[in-house]
Amino acid sequence: MRDRPETLTTEAGAPVAQDDISRTAGVGGPTLLEDHHLLEKLARFNRERIPERVVHARGAGAFGFFEVTADVSRWTRAAFLQGVGTRTEVFARFSTVALEAGSADCVRDPRGFAVKFYTREGNYDLVGNNTPIFFIRDAIRFPDFIHSQKRDPVTHLQSADNAWAFFAGTPEATHQMVWLHGDRGLPRSYRHMDGFGTHTFRWTNAAGEGFWVKIHLKTAQGIACLPPAEAVRLAGEAPDHHHADLYDAIDRGDVPSWTMKVQVMPEADAAGTAYDPFDATKIWPYADYPLHEVGRLVLDRNPANYFAEVEQAAFNPAHFVPGIGPSPDRLLQGRLFAYGDAQRYRLGVNHTLLPVNAPRGTVARTYARDGAMRYDGNGGGGPNFRPNDRGGPEPDASLAVPAGHDVSPRPAARTVDDFSQAGALYRLMDEGARQRLVEALAGSLGHVSSAAVREACIGHFRAADAELGARLDALGA
Ligand code: HEM
Asked: Considering the domain boundaries, does residue 332 fall inside one?
């Protein structure tokens, strides 16, 4: 500890003489407009808030590393996945989806599981959830879906009427609704849940061959869930429970980790599977596409400052690196636009320069210039256009996908099946889990005022599994 504290300054660095009372015209007189420190302090305070994320506003994050533990070079050329033992710095953020930054952690909601890999080929962002599937299969429905989950525009309350009315007209959400109302809809902590890329991605190897890939992050802490009554208690008594659990565990050196695994589908299989492999409401059965280990994700360092590193973190599903790319999944395609757009609004056009978002294993070399709050050297004396004659950066043609591998084929048209996998998930549950699922669904459906909406929703569950439908009928849901 220093003998003498450093001198307080204004934001311009000038020493401040008085910080307990404002300057007045004489003793007891009115405050003077010339008290710049007072005005700056009040004005700065008024501007502390920035727009919170439109979804996933509530979250906690941590730094760590990813280490390759198996050879996956036959499927991807991504540099950070080459060589057992290769380590890459990461930042991860976990979140709830529907409510505000100040809302309670222990609610039934999917959890975001976003990981930024600071690779030497630029940042790779895996912006996943703790669920292997999603509610909808096309980005065009996302704003409607989220509106039905968030606060009602009139009452400003979350509304079972809204949520279930949307579901009544959205049979493809049945699979995710069974998942969400099952035990895993209430994870015990961020540490005790799996993560999923959810979408299908396209990995490309050094020879240019493509593979469809689903990414799984399996918790080393084991899956643990909250009984509904405990979740209700924690939401009231300890609304920051998941946030505190992650921070405290890392703080005491009990560092959480996950094993990354992938399901790999040869490109040609996509046309022949019984389900659309690019439909985010579907899983790929393990029997057809088993899990292969890739590496381990370890989170071992808490952020030094929440706002700087967690609130200002910007994950973008369009941030790929060579060897990893998108598939024709229509949900993913919409996300490739939505995140950067949201972040240009939420953080500004230069948000990729912020320390938590800037590449660490390499530097960004672009012709992007100017914009609000451009606080680095703005490209200095380098050219701001190409082609140019001044040695500016050039694209690397060797990274282009070779001819013959550059098309992402849509598989053959299939009959849409929104229910088979939802029913299969129900039938995987033991009797206790089925009973808890039925109680959770009935409890929520019980708040719906429209009998027609309730019946339409139960109809979806009945189509998934007759027994599930009958049990909901029996409870008078
Ligand atoms: C078309 C569908 C979707 C759209 C349009 C969408 C849009 C958004 C937007 C605008 C944000 C806020 C970004 C920010 O301000 O930084 C966000 C956050 C997030 N979304 Fe999505 N989303 C979609 C589907 C999904 C899916 C399917 C997943 C997971 C599988 C997902 C996971 C996340 C996560 C984890 C975050 C929080 C990232 C963080 O921690 O900062 N979203 N989403």
From this structure: yes
